[in-house]
Write a structure and sequence with these properties.
The chain is α/β, with parallel strands linked by helices. The protein is built from 14 helices and 15 strands. β14 and β15 form a beta hairpin.
Length: 496
C-alpha cells in the first residue's frame, strides 16, 4: 500500500477506536477522503532569490505570510532550478526533463552578448516547449482536475494546449506586459485593466476568483507571478515605507522590497479565501522560484552568483511545501532536490498517471514530504547550458567579466559540485558542505574526485545526447575580447 494511503488508513482507524460521536466520525472520514484528492496551489515567483524571504534570512524584506506558511510545512534548504534563467527553467519544470531533452537552453534562440567575445557557436535550441512532450498539467487535467495558469508562461504563445483549462495573462513573453501598470493590450484578460491597477495585485485577484469558481471540484492552480522580474516597479506607498526603513546588511533595495511585499500580501489574501471556502485543510501549497535573484538589486550571500550564473546563487531556490494534517509543521529537508522533481510529485499527489514512454528526470518528493524517508535514491543532479548569457552591471559573482555564463555543464553529487567549461576545457570542484560560497576550487588538490565527477558528467551527457558546442565562431576576435576584459577590469578597479 502507498505510504500516504497507509497513513490515512491508520489515522482513520485510530479515530474510529477513540471517538464515539457520529459527527466526529463523519468529519474524519470526510477529511481522509479529501486528502486523497487534494487541491494544489503552486506559487512560483520569477527571479526570487534564495535569501529573499524572511524564513530564509532576509534582514530587510518583509514576508510574514510566506514565513507563516513555510513554518506550517516543510522547508527545503537545498532546492534547485534546473536552469539559471527563465525560459529553460520553466521548460524543465513543466516537462520534468533536463534541458537537452526539450532543447530550450536560453531566453530566445539568438546568441546573447557580443559575438566577438566567445570562441564557439552557441547551440540555439528552440524557444517553444515541444507539444509532443506531455506536461504535468495535461496529466493532472486528464485525472479530473480543473487546471489554471495565472501569470507568466513564457513557453509558447498560449498555455491552454499544454493542459490548462484557464489562462490569465500568460503569453510567450517573459517580462511583465509593459511593466506592472497598464496598458497591457496583448496579455489575455488585461486588455481593459484600470490605469492604476498593479499587476501583482490583479494576479492575486484572479487566483482568488479561480479558487472561488472551482471550490466544488478538485483544482490545480499554477500561480506564476511576474514579480520580481524587471522592470523594478513597486507601489509608491510601499517604496516610501522601505526607503524610510533602516537598511539591512544583506538586503537594502526599497523597490525590490515593495515588490516582494505585494506578493506576500497577495499570499495572505489567498489564504483567507482558502479559509473562507473551507478548502484550507484540503489544499497542498508549493512555493518556489525559477532561478536566482536579480543581481543588481538583491543578494544571495553566502551563495556566489545570481540569475544567469551556474554558481549556487544562480540556481538554488527558496522552497517549501505545506499540507495540513499530512506534512509535519516546522519540518525541514536538506536533501538536494531540483525542479524536475515537481512533475512526478504533482502526479503522485493528484493520483495522475505518468505518461508512458516519456523520459523523466525527476523523482517524487512524496517520501520526503511524508517523512517516510529523509533522502531520495542515490542520485546526482545535472545542468547543461551550451550557450552564452551576457553580463549586466553586476559582475562580481561571475567566472569572467563579460558573461554571466559561457557554455558549461554542471553536476552535483552529494556534497560535491563540479563545473565543466567548454571554451577552455576548464573544471572547477567545490565541496558544498564546507564551502557553500564556492570560494575554493579543489580540482587541483583533489584530482581523484574531480576526475570521478567529470567522468560521471560526461557519461550523463552521452546518455541524454547533450549537445556540446564545437563549431568555431567566425566572428570571434580574441584581441577585441582581451581589450574588453581589460577595460572591464579597469572599471572594477576604479569602483574599488
Amino acid at each position: 500500500m502507498h505510504p500516504l494511503k497507509l497513513r490515512l488508513c491508520l489515522q482513520l482507524t485510530i479515530t474510529l477506536t477513540v471517538l464515539s460521536e457520529p459527527a466526529q466520525l463523519i468529519a474524519q472520514e470526510q477529511k481522509s477522503e479529501n486528502l486523497n484528492r487534494p487541491n494544489v496551489l503552486f506559487i512560483f515567483l520569477d527571479d526570487y532569490g534564495w535569501r529573499d524571504c524572511g524564513f530564509m534570512g532576509s534582514d530587510y524584506y518583509e514576508t510574514p505570510n510566506l514565513d507563516a506558511l513555510a513554518k506550517s510545512g516543510m522547508i527545503f534548504t537545498n532546492a534547485y532550478s534546473a536552469s539559471a534563467n527563465c525560459a529553460p527553467a520553466r521548460a524543465c519544470l513543466l516537462s520534468g526533463q533536463y534541458t537537452p531533452r526539450h532543447e530550450i537552453y536560453n531566453v530566445g534562440t539568438s546568441r546573447r552578448g557580443n559575438p566577438k567575445f566567445g570562441k564557439w557557436m552557441h547551440v540555439p535550441g528552440t524557444d517553444t516547449l515541444p507539444e509532443g512532450i506531455r506536461t504535468w498539467a495535461q496529466q493532472i487535467q486528464t485525472a479530473g482536475y480543473r487546471t489554471g495558469t495565472i501569470g507568466k508562461w513564457h513557453l509558447s504563445d498560449d498555455p491552454l494546449p499544454y493542459g490548462f483549462d484557464f489562462n490569465f495573462a500568460g503569453t510567450h513573453s517573459g517580462s511583465p506586459p509593459r511593466g506592472y501598470y497598464p496598458p497591457h493590450p496583448k496579455a489575455p484578460g488585461l486588455k481593459n485593466a484600470p490605469s492604476d491597477e498593479y499587476l501583482t495585485d490583479r494576479l492575486t485577484d484572479e487566483a482568488i476568483g479561480f479558487i472561488d469558481r472551482n471550490r466544488k471540484q478538485p483544482w490545480f492552480l499554477y500561480l506564476t507571478h511576474f514579480a520580481v522580474h524587471t522592470p523594478l516597479q513597486g507601489k509608491s506607498d510601499l517604496v516610501a515605507k522601505y526607503e524610510a526603513k533602516p537598511k539591512g546588511q544583506l538586503h537594502s533595495h526599497a523597490v525590490m522590497a515593495a515588490m516582494i511585499e505585494s506578493v506576500d500580501t497577495g499570499v495572505g489574501r489567498i489564504m483567507d479565501k482558502l479559509e473562507e471556502t473551507g478548502l484550507k485543510e484540503n489544499t497542498v501549497i508549493f512555493f518556489s522560484s525559477d532561478n536566482g535573484g536579480y543581481g543588481p538589486a538583491t543578494s544571495m550571500t553566502p551563495l556566489k552568483g545570481y540569475k544567469g550564473t551556474y554558481y549556487e546563487g544562480g540556481i538554488r531556490e527558496p522552497m517549501f511545501v505545506t499540507w495540513p494534517g499530512v506534512i509535519a509543521a516546522g519540518s525541514q529537508s536538506d536533501e538536494p532536490v531540483i525542479n524536475v522533481d515537481f512533475y512526478p510529485t504533482f502526479c503522485e499527489i493528484t493520483k495522475a498517471e505518468l505518461p508512458e514512454g516519456q523520459p523523466r528526470d525527476g523523482e517524487s518528493l512524496l517520501p520526503i514530504l511524508l517523512q517516510d524517508k529523509a533522502t531520495l535514491k542515490d542520485r546526482a543532479l545535472f545542468w547543461h547550458f551550451p550557450a552564452y548569457l551576457q553580463s549586466y552591471q553586476r559582475v562580481d559573482g561571475q567566472r569572467d567579466l563579460l558573461y554571466r555564463s559561457r557554455p558549461c555543464s554542471i553536476i552535483r553529487d552529494g556534497r560535491w559540485k563540479l563545473h565543466q567549461y567548454f571554451e577552455d576545457d576548464a573544471i572547477e570542484l567545490y565541496d558544498l558542505k564546507n564551502d557553500i560560497s564556492e570560494s575554493h576550487d579543489l580540482s587541483s588538490s583533489n584530482p581523484e574526485k574531480a576526475s570521478e565527477l567529470l567522468l560521471q558528467l560526461r557519461t550523463w551527457q552521452r546518455e541524454i545526447n547533450a549537445p556540446i558546442p564545437a563549431e568555431r565562431n567566425p566572428l570571434y576576435d580574441p584581441a577585441a575580447e582581451a581589450e574588453a576584459l581589460h577595460n572591464m577590469q579597469r572599471k572594477q578597479s576604479k569602483k574599488k
